[in-house]
Amino acid sequence: MKLSYNIVIPVLNEEKRIVACIPKIRGLLLGNGFSRFSITIADNGSTDQTEKISKDLAAQYGDVNYVKVGKKGVGLALKTAWDQSSSDVIGYMDVDLATDISHFMEVAAILEKGGIQVVNGSRNLHGSRVINRSVVRTVTSRGFNFLLRGILNTKITDGMCGFKFLRRDAYQKLREVGLFNDGWFFCTELLCVAERVGMRIQELPVSWYDDRDSRVRITQTSIYYLKEIFKLRSRRIHRDCK
Ligand SMILES: Nc1nc2c(ncn2[C@@H]2O[C@H](COP(=O)(O)OP(=O)(O)O)[C@@H](O)[C@H]2O)c(=O)[nH]1
Ligand SMILES: [Mg+2]
Predict the structure, then answer these.
(1) What is the mean pLDDT of residues 82-110?
(2) In terms of DSSP bridges, do strands 89-93 and 163-167 run parallel, antiparallel, or are they unpaired?
């Protein structure tokens, strides 16, 4: 493995799920010969024991750290953590490990090979598997991705899957171009801006298990997405990658 990796876990009131998550990721990485990696727990707004538990995990494992962000929003939490990272590859996964973490090996293989800047986990490709998702979430997810393709004319098949990795130099470039959203839409903005500047994005079919324990308020989030899609459409972003 030539590259170093930083995996961010965004958390909001995850005192129960964070404890199991960290050892699982470490186990996978250490078991597969990764030596240069770090895991960052990025928290903004937890009011339960998440902070204490995360700090305990960071004290226990040298490769785990905890970042607390003053203002709310998943996007802001990710940007804050990634801005502090010095790893070659940065990315994130949800604390529930809904995306089967063994896909991380495929992500690493793609990035180690070179030529690809962004790897996006997708639940909507031939070969993807989605297990236990509610009808409401299935319909809203399909609808969201349909609108994304229709309105933004993107090739991305899944804007919202919590499993994305990119080269840090590519991220820095995207920061310069502008990543403005601080909330849930950030991950989609990241992909769409990367696509529009001409970065090479590879989508990976993933297995995804929904534990139905969600922090997302569905109606509010759907309206918000729609607004953000139109905002993004009106932005002028120039292609400047080969
Ligand atoms: N830092 C941060 N993380 C959040 C926030 N809201 C949700 N998360 C995390 O984002 C991830 C995905 O949330 P989850 O509720 O599982 O989403 P779902 O499975 O798509 O319904 C989990 O790791 C959450 O703890 C937030 O406001 N800030
Ligand atoms: Mg989840």
Answers:
(1) 98
(2) antiparallel
